[in-house]
Amino acid sequence: MTTGDAESAVARIFNASVAASAVSAAWEIGALDELSGHGVLDVNKFASERHLDPTAALALFRALAAVGIVERDDVKIVPAAHFAEVYRARSFFHWLSRGSADLFRRMPEVLVAENRVGDFRRRDSAAIAYACREISTFCYDPWFRKAVDGLDFEVTAVADLGCGSGERVLQLLRRFPTARGVGVDIARPALTSAADAAAAAELADRVLFVEADVLAMEAREEFLGVELLTSFMMGHDFWPRQSCVATLQRLRELFPETRRFLLGDATRTVGIPDDELPVFTLGFEVAHDLMGTFIPTVADWESVFEEGGWLLRRKHTIDLAVGEVIFELEQL
């Protein structure tokens, strides 16, 4: 590689870092939806309608144009070669640039062993929940609906662990119109969003959102009678292994009447070179390694179910971005 080639490669790396934040912002302010729906956007008109600073708005689109996401003719913006794929993966960028920004910003400190105490893992829980709601829509929902449709009983009570924005438990309440629901999450900002969503959906009278650490929560009266237990995108927090086994056993005690447990999560990649990892995988695995959170492989998961008191009935392999899988479990 010549000096010029190296300089160009490094420029692309740097510009892509700027563009990652721009993608997240463009989604949040509605610019990606505008381009997807209409195919063209006038920066000045868009900025005026959204009460944005026009100079700052143009800077955002310059960042997107620098890496081939949009094309720019002065203030006229149209989708470019990479737009469709970026639009599909928009929530991944939000997870990275909004939800996990502080963690990556503090990487030098987080690497130091003596600093890895207290709240060193802190991220923006509301932004993570916002992104994960969208991630769940295309990474899990089609397979989740298939699993729910395959249940051999009518659900009257559901609980979602790590409920985040509350979307999954609300989906279940719409699916089972006589059921009641419980959502559990440790992050108060996410629960506030969940409560607002339940009110907007006119389901607030059928769902209770509980602020608690799933790994250390106490028994509650509302947990009794729950027949369908779900947990998505937080199962890796159960680990390491002995902690996972203990958590699975504890869930049997907390939810003794559970007939099915749908556990959906990412799994660690195996055998993929670092320079061939797909979108999101590197960010997800590096972030959790920085936080000291073990990401299990599929084989790791399959090794704990029986010891934890659960029978694996079926495995729904998804594997769109980060080795997603849904395990369909029932109590032994």
TrEMBL record:
It comes from the Bacteria. The keyword Transferase applies. Keywords: Methyltransferase, Transferase. SUPFAM superfamilies: S-adenosyl-L-methionine-dependent methyltransferases, Winged helix' DNA-binding domain. Gene3D superfamilies: Vaccinia Virus protein VP39, Winged helix-like DNA-binding domain superfamily/Winged helix DNA-binding domain. GO terms for biological process: methylation. GO terms for molecular function: methyltransferase activity. Residues 158-252 form the Methyltransferase domain. The keyword DNA-binding does not apply. Pfam families: Methyltransf_25. This is Methyltransferase domain-containing protein.
